[in-house]
């Protein structure tokens, strides 16, 4: 069904995909500012256009007309290419996202076509590959700026995306196992009776967390945290180059929301109450409406998280990615693979559920026994433990906080008021050669 469109229709659909992303980004920026203002009991943008809807367009024009500053110590070629490398891959993933059912469903200028630019047997691998290219723009931006804080922000973003892409890939693999395909249109077709958010809820939760980390959004916006990095990888950028970084972030938000809709929320399919009594809900141009509504709901989730949760520490971010999300995604992938293998062997759903429940109960019992044994050994280990080594808060010449198990040395006790009065009046605690009030007499005695 793909590859049969004339060249002009391919161009029209490509322009539509670009325009869809740009319009959605302009709306998402205004919507975010409005919703966060509503959560914080503020007014939000209300000057440009009706209800302030043209505020993001005005901001984009202002950024384009601002002075373009290039820092002196920057590697100018890489410095200029970095925003382009970050922005272009963000637009490419939308090419394989289906906006409607396959087949000649709609007519564009008299030509019957499907509401999807193209599709591939490995479309999801294409999305993963394109998304991983965008990280190069952020890393190169931080390195080429010739400044310390942008470099730290770029390295943070690199480590963050690597950590969360592993769990994201495992969540995708669960969908591949259940649908039997990596084609986006085929994955949506497999959700005819039941969406994968119901069949694979753990994969959906894993992807929601990882997509927030992938897009560097709050509470995982560590690469651009203004508290310790001033602005992150884009600190030294201005004008149109800064606008391209901001555009790439919001386009990535739309892209990951579209991927989540395609994989778990039925794609272009109408919700259950509507599709049950209206046969034409999944035909014509109506599927595009359901797709856009689902994407906007996921964008609202991004905004809701930003207005509700504080920014986490960087060690908490890495611990969540490596010690929680990756183990959970691997275990869940094994469970899904076992369920599919039993299903292929002819076992019924009840038998599979009993087997899985028995394995989970056995795992919980083993973990309970291990915890009980660990609690019994803990007091004995505490008694046998030696005294902790002395902690030097000025090690290396810089003040450092104590690690777990270390204690700061006692602070020297300040003299009380009575002790200071005794010292000042020449009491018994004085360490001078003679009494303060008799200093003149002592001098006369020494002269004599």
UniProtKB/TrEMBL annotation:
PROSITE patterns: COMPLEX1_ND1_1, COMPLEX1_ND1_2. It is found in: Cell membrane; Membrane. The chain crosses the membrane at residues 6-31, 77-100, 120-143, 164-183, 195-213, 250-268, 288-308, 320-340, 352-370. Residues 381-448 are annotated as: Disordered. It is an enzyme of class 7 (translocase). The keyword Kinase does not apply. Keywords: Cell membrane, Membrane, NAD, Oxidoreductase, Quinone, Translocase, Transmembrane, Transmembrane helix, Ubiquinone. It holds the Pfam family NADHdh. InterPro entries: NADH_UbQ_OxRdtase_su1/FPO (IPR001694), NADH_UbQ_OxRdtase_su1_CS (IPR018086). Residues 399-411 have a biased composition (Pro residues). NDH-1 is composed of 14 different subunits. Subunits NuoA, H, J, K, L, M, N constitute the membrane sector of the complex. Belongs to the complex I subunit 1 family. This is NADH-quinone oxidoreductase subunit H. It comes from Streptomyces fragilis. The gene is nuoH.
